[in-house]
Write a structure and sequence with these properties.
Layout lengths: L2 H13 L17 H9 L6 H9 L3 H16 L2 E5 L1 E4 L28 H9 L8 E4 L9 H14 L4 E4 L2 H11 L3 H11 L3 E2 L9 H7 L6 H13 L3 E8 L5 H18 L2 E8 L15 H14 L5 E2 L3 H4 L1 H7 L6 E4 L6 H4 L10 H10 L3 E4 L7 E3 L4 E3 L2
Parallel strand pairs: 1-9, 1-10, 2-3, 3-4, 5-6, 6-7, 7-8
Antiparallel strand pairs: 11-12
Helix pairs in contact: 2-4, 3-11, 4-12, 5-6, 7-8, 7-10, 10-11, 12-14
Length: 395
Amino acid sequence: MRPHELRYHQKSMQAETAVPGATQSFRTYDRKLKPIADKVMAQQRLDFEEGLALYRSSDVLAVGWLANHVRERLHGDTTYFNVNRHINPTNVCVAACKLCAFGRKKGDPHGYTMALEEAWQTAASGYSEAVTEFHIVGGLHPDLPLEYFLDLVRGLKERFPQVHIKAFTMVEVAFFARRAKLTIEQTLLKLREAGVDSMPGGGAEIFSPRVRSIICDHKIDGSEWLETARLAHKLGFKSNATMLYGHIESDEDRVDHLIKLREVQDETGGFQTFIPLAFHPENTPLDHLPVTTGLTDIRQIAVSRLVLDNFPHIKAYWQMLTPKIAQIALRFGADDLDGTVVEEKIYHDAGATTPQGMTRKELSRLITEAGRIPVERDTLYHPVTRTEASFTVAV
């Protein structure tokens, strides 16, 4: 054993702490993790300072072990994925967020807006497998009326009645409402009547006013995002929630974000999945910032699983993490890899080098090789059973 390895080994042996009542597999040289581990094993809620300690612990393997313990308590080896299709009807956007490489100003030669027929054709094209979900998000277009988006959804429901429509972030809904001179509730009701079934979690970014004023000051603020989600849940919508990390936020900002989401979930129970999103700085005004490391990514997954005790699912979004890191995340608290996607624009415009889409077979292989059991789901986490000609959903 080399001298530096011996010193590390001696330090670990002296500081190693076993958690009473837990399997003897858990060991850590970070004494601050012991009371946290005790609470995790007792299924007790972690507070702000404990969340901060998880972010700052140098023993990321111990943090991951605890997150994996919670993940397996909730889901065993099951890992979910779905067959979905992303549709981004426009990239024209009135906002000028420093975090974004997707949006274009009106008149920009690289801007686009799909005609309704084009959007419907996009939904039908490019993939042979039957999708169970359309995931629809886009820019905040200054001219498109609410009726365009209602017609878009109505047309999709007419053509693909079996497909679940997960559409429009809290930011988009608030923008639609403002332009149409409607309340948030009225807007949500119109979207539901048109055929929107649930909502994605984008646009949350970081709730910290300090950070938000720098990276996305043109969007609704954090409290408005949370209030829009609260209203959506009370009307019966399920939604996801996200956090964009790895830019100018602090550990305190991250913990604050998670706890604010947890508080709304206590009230509504409407969040299905939390999705940590790693910031891709390329092609944005923040391109001087470094990309996140794999260690940061898997720690974020783990801390999310431990702090968000009332969220059913934590997603490792393979498009942003890369499939390899997403595989590792399945041992750090994640139980979902997202879906086939087919064509993802927003993060690829920001420099993502992952594939644009992935087949069911490829996703199943990633999950199986990570030692987990792949289960295809629909948007609401009902298992999907496929035959050669069709699929059925267990409700």
